[in-house]
UniProtKB/TrEMBL annotation:
Principal cellular location given in the protein's record: membrane
Compartments where found: Cell membrane
Record protein name field: Stage V sporulation protein B
Keywords, in A-Z order: Cell membrane, Membrane, Transmembrane, Transmembrane helix
Regions crossing the membrane: 40-63, 84-109, 121-143, 155-176, 182-203, 278-302, 323-342, 348-371, 383-406, 412-437, 449-467, 479-502
Its membrane topology: Multi-pass membrane protein
Domain of life: Bacteria
CDD domains: MATE_SpoVB_like
Length: 517
């Protein structure tokens, strides 16, 4: 079983994350152009229910499996690795069956009374069978990550997206004549087949690389696995707290939005279309850069944990400053591009230039999200996961309350829902930062962050100039590409000019470090 170093594994995940995000956008564009806003709205209304079901099924086990298998592997304890796999498969297997049956049984009730649009029944029923598939996949991913082999997990993500994109156009186009609800169900079926292809790949890798037999003595291992079960749940349950809060919040989000818009006097069909624009077009675009901060968060946990164990608080502060600076710089470029070029991007991707209004309103406050992941990673490394969960709970409550307060007012409507979503993000990020600052007496390096601000400000001004004077000289697609590339080049220039890219930031990157002396 080939292993990678921390940096190599992180880079593999970043590359896979970039590929899957790009492919995911292609998938969303295909779905949007075939099904339209109404079909995307039905599809997106069912997605939060799926995510909640998956969170309950996984129960935070992938992290626990990874940790325990890594410890067992370091001791060469293959017997314990086998026991961890057996107990994990048993837990996720039972949970996935129960939750799948519950989801299919409750689908008629949910579609009629919770979502206000009875047509959500079809995508809800169509997506239910994916739960057992994802449950088994999560166990295998935890196994490979515990052995410090990130390739199967990364490759499986790419395979899943490729298969989904290949089938989504075929299935949605084939079912669209029967109604948009059937087309939305077809999009969900493509998700199932993509996840199945991903699982088959990981299972084949497991069969090739494993040095033990799982089936032999399965129930015997299960009977003697009480200690392993206790260890797994001891790690998994606290880990899943914040995830569950996010999933529950996301589950209630379309329900609160639909009810709020109904109170505001907006028809069910129009509300579904508007939520489709917001949740299916705008939010995925704004979430695009988070794969970078996610990879940074993964790398940050062991680095902060090591420094905290050695009580090197100055090292913690230094690494936190690095993480926040890199988050600010990666998020800054994304914010500039999405804000300045919102209209042509939304028109080219979804034929929905009107959605640019949501992008422009949400982008400035959505910028806070790019700091949230690294800050939460620091809290986990400092054994403050409960505080992170509390912060997430407060943010979720603020988000849902703000959506209801604003979206019920006719002058705001769906824009009130957009403001409520970003307000929740801002609250969680500020609370995370306050908790970290209290825990380690954190001090911001003002000069460094002022240079970051100037870099973003100057690049934003230059990008606005490009959009106003250079963009009109080309066709929409060419002009957008030329201006975005020029913006990236301008941003890189200011990064170097303000000395925001340092040698220590790039010397650890594979293939580049050999050129940095």
């Amino acid at each position: 079983m080939s292993k990678q170093t921390l940096i190599q594994g992180t880079m593999i995940l970043i590359i896979a994350g970039l590929i899957t995000r790009v492919l995911g956008f292609v998938n969303k564009m295909v779905v949007a152009r075939i099904m339209g806003q109404e079909g995307v709205g039905l599809y997106m209304m069912a997605v939060p229910t799926l995510l909640l079901a998956l969170t309950l099924t996984r129960l935070g086990l992938p992290v626990a499996i990874s940790k325990l298998i890594a410890e067992a592997d370091s001791r060469g304890d293959k017997r314990n690795i086998r026991k961890i796999l057996v107990v994990s498969l048993a837990i996720t297997g039972v949970l996935s069956i129960l939750i799948t049956v519950a989801m299919m049984a409750l689908a008629p009730l949910m579609s009629r009374y919770f979502f206000t649009d009875h047509r959500t029944f079809y995508p809800l029923i169509a997506i239910a069978p994916v739960i057992p598939i994802v449950a088994i996949s999560s166990v295998l991913r935890g196994y490979f990550q515990g052995l410090q082999n990130m390739r199967p997990s990364a490759y499986s993500q790419v395979i899943e997206q490729v298969v989904r994109i290949t089938l989504v156009a075929l299935l949605t186009g084939w079912l669209l004549p029967y109604g948009v609800e059937y087309a939305a169900a077809g999009a969900m079926i493509s998700v199932i087949i993509g996840e199945l292809a991903s699982l088959l790949y990981m299972f084949s890798m497991f069969k090739m690389k494993k040095t033990m037999k799982i089936r032999n003595g399965f129930f015997k291992q299960l009977k003697g696995g009480r200690g392993t079960l206790k260890e797994l749940l001891g790690i998994a349950l606290p880990t899943t707290g914040s995830q569950l809060i996010g999933s529950v919040s996301y589950f209630f989000e379309p329900i609160v939005v639909a009810r709020s818009l109904a109170i505001a006097g907006i028809t069910t069909t129009m509300a579904t279309k508007q939520y489709g624009e917001l949740a299916g077009y705008v939010i995925p675009l704004l979430f695009l850069p988070t794969f970078i901060t996610y990879s940074l968060s993964v790398s940050l946990v062991p680095a902060i944990s090591e420094a905290n164990a050695q009580k090197k608080y100055n090292v913690i502060e230094h690494r936190l400053n690095q993480a926040i600076r890199l988050s600010m710089l990666s998020g800054g470029l994304a914010a500039i591009i999405t804000f300045v070029y919102a209209e042509p991007i939304m028109d080219l991707m979804y034929h929905s230039p009107a959605s640019a209004a949501y992008v422009k309103v949400m982008t400035p406050l959505f910028f806070f999200l790019y700091f949230q992941g690294p800050l939460q990673a620091v809290l986990q490394a400092l054994n403050l996961a409960k505080a992170a969960m509390t912060n997430s709970l407060i943010g979720a409550a603020v988000k849902l309350a703000a959506i209801f307060a604003l979206a019920t007012r006719p002058e705001f409507g769906i824009m009130g829902a957009a403001l409520g979503i970003v307000l929740g993000i801002v609250v969680v990020t500020i609370l995370h930062f306050a908790t970290v600052a209290k825990a380690i007496s954190y001090t911001i390096v003002a000069g460094e962050f002022f240079r970051c601000f100037l870099c973003i400000l100057f690049t934003g001004a230059g990008s606005a100039y490009l959009y106003r004077y250079i963009f009109p000289q080309f066709t929409q697609s060419t002009g957008t590409a030329v201006c975005i590339v020029s913006t990236i080049i301008l941003y890189m220039f200011f990064l170097i000019f303000f000395r925001l890219i340092l040698k220590e930031d790039i010397k650890h990157i594979p293939f580049i470090k050999r050129w940095v002396k």
